[in-house]
Amino acid sequence: MIAKKIRIHLADDHQVLIDGLKNLLQTVSNFEVVGTSINGISIYDDIIQNNADILVLDISMPEKDGIKVLQEFKEKGNPCKIIILSSYDDLKIIKEVMKLNAKGYLTKKCAGKNIIEAINTVYKGHEYFSDAIREKIFESFANNPKLKENTYFKNSILTPRELEIVKLISLEYSGKEISELLFISTNTVETHRKNIMKKLQTKNTIGLVKYALKNNLINP
């Protein structure tokens, strides 16, 4: 049985970068680059046409920047998952694209070694942030005084096992690693993860990190 290929659309205002990424991604057997864009105007329509699974999007795009593209996708309904690939690592921008449903963020400096992993991770339904971006996000939550004032998060919301899993997720353990440490199946880990997110009313890993920091489950 032939595995389904992950269909990828690349959007960046530098053709050289697009060509380089395309050459790299074409070395992966289950990747297929189905479209490219050098401005933001027609990206949404292009993806509707080529049925891409993943959009790799730059922030700095001519005529319509990446933020406006994300806003368009959110308003019209996301036809694919979006990974931001940018020269910017400004925390304000990172938080903004997260609010606009971007599923990954990495800087161009680390694109070569991280982009393949990022695409595979996001395609499977998870989020992906490069190490430098993740550190910025975690640091911002750790240093945010509002977290210390927030009385919403209570340890009693979660069971002891759920607290263990929140801590391990926040420390970037994979589902497989958690299952091995706690001697439970990966399916059980995933079930716990879903239940935890439902209880905490969060949709992503960052919400779990906020909870872990607030309740001293991990050291900032």
Automatic annotation (TrEMBL):
UniProt name for this protein: LuxR family two component transcriptional regulator
Domain (Response regulatory) ranges: 7-123
Annotated GO MF terms: DNA binding
PROSITE patterns (UniProt xref): HTH_LUXR_2, RESPONSE_REGULATORY
Source species: Flavobacterium cutihirudinis
SMART domains xrefs: HTH_LUXR, REC
Source organism phylogeny: Bacteria, Pseudomonadati, Bacteroidota, Flavobacteriia, Flavobacteriales
Residues found modified as 4-aspartylphosphate: D58
Domain of life: Bacteria
Keyword Phosphoprotein: yes
GO process annotations (BP): phosphorelay signal transduction system; regulation of DNA-templated transcription
Keyword RNA-binding in annotation: no
Domain HTH luxR-type: residue ranges: 151-216
UniProt KW keywords: DNA-binding, Phosphoprotein, Transcription, Transcription regulation
PANTHER family, alphabetized: NITRATE_NITRITE RESPONSE REGULATOR PROTEIN NARP, TWO-COMPONENT RESPONSE REGULATOR
